[in-house]
């Protein structure tokens, strides 16, 4: 597999990486100019810089580049410790981050889920829409989604990858499906879990989660009602409020576990069919 094929594979999974390239060599070095190595977000590598301490230093710097999101140039003076000759040599390594599009996983392909996929697409997010109904989770129904998955909500994350950089929005068609989706989402490291619905729904589902063994701290990760409070009513307005909150979270502003959006009157495809809950 070529290094660029691995980059594409990682990006599809929503994983970050960094490409390290030797751009200059002076004297003896284990690799020559143009040599490349890919460092994944977990510190594992594809390719080599020749091994030894040189490679270890590049990996350490690459992990920081992935975290910061900014490229850097790393000068290394080779010694016997780095695998060079006694007289030494020098290499200059350019390390460039490969940051994937942020991933939004929408559980529920009803009115709000469909509108949210549309807003997320133009906001630069890679969107995965999940529903257990094939007639809803398909490319024809939601053409803006990068991926549609027909699967039950309870064990969806055995199929769909979610890490700390992932955003999850739960907008299924009923309480039971919401509960299944919440339980699944809370087993992931997702940095954002939003639930569409009312304060009444929140109280009921949080009580059931506690009875199922989830800690208050873990349950507190759930943002509900989800979205910023802009007086949203239609699915499109609700989608905009949710996306605004996700962008706020992504750009480093604090989003509490208790949501602040308003939920308009929704159809039976998603959310609370009868709710008109508001927020703080």
Automatic annotation (TrEMBL):
Domain XdhC- CoxI: 12-74
Domain XdhC Rossmann: 104-246
Organism superkingdom: Bacteria
Protein name in the entry: Dehydrogenase molybdenum cofactor insertion protein
Organism of origin: Candidatus Sulfobium mesophilum
């Amino acid at each position: 597999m070529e290094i660029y094929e691995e980059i594409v594979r990682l990006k599809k999974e929503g994983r970050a990486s960094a490409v390290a390239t030797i751009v200059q060599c002076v004297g003896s070095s284990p690799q020559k100019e143009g040599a490349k190595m890919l460092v994944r977000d977990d510190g594992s590598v594809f390719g080599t810089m020749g091994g030894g301490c040189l490679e270890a230093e590049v990996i350490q710097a690459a992990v920081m580049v992935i975290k910061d999101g900014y490229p850097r140039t790393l000068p290394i003076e080779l010694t016997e410790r780095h695998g060079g000759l006694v007289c030494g040599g020098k290499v200059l390594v350019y390390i460039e981050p490969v940051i994937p599009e942020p991933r939004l996983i929408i559980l529920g392909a009803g009115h709000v889920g469909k509108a949210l996929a549309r807003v997320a697409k133009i906001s630069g997010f890679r969107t995965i829409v999940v529903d257990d109904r094939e007639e809803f989770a398909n490319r024809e129904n939601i053409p803006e989604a990068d991926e549609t998955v027909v699967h039950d909500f309870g064990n969806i994350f055995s199929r769909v990858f979610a890490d700390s950089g992932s955003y999850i929005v739960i907008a299924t068609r009923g309480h039971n499906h919401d509960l299944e989706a919440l339980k699944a989402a809370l087993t992931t490291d997702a940095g954002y879990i939003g639930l569409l619905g009312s304060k009444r729904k929140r109280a009921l589902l949080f009580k059931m989660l506690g009875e199922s063994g989830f800690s208050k701290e873990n349950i507190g990760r759930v943002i509900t009602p989800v979205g910023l409070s802009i007086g949203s009513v239609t699915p499109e307005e609700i989608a905009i409020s949710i996306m605004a909150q996700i962008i706020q979270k992504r750009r480093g502003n604090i989003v509490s576990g208790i949501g602040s959006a308003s939920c308009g009157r929704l159809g039976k495809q998603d959310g609370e069919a009868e709710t008109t809950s508001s927020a703080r």
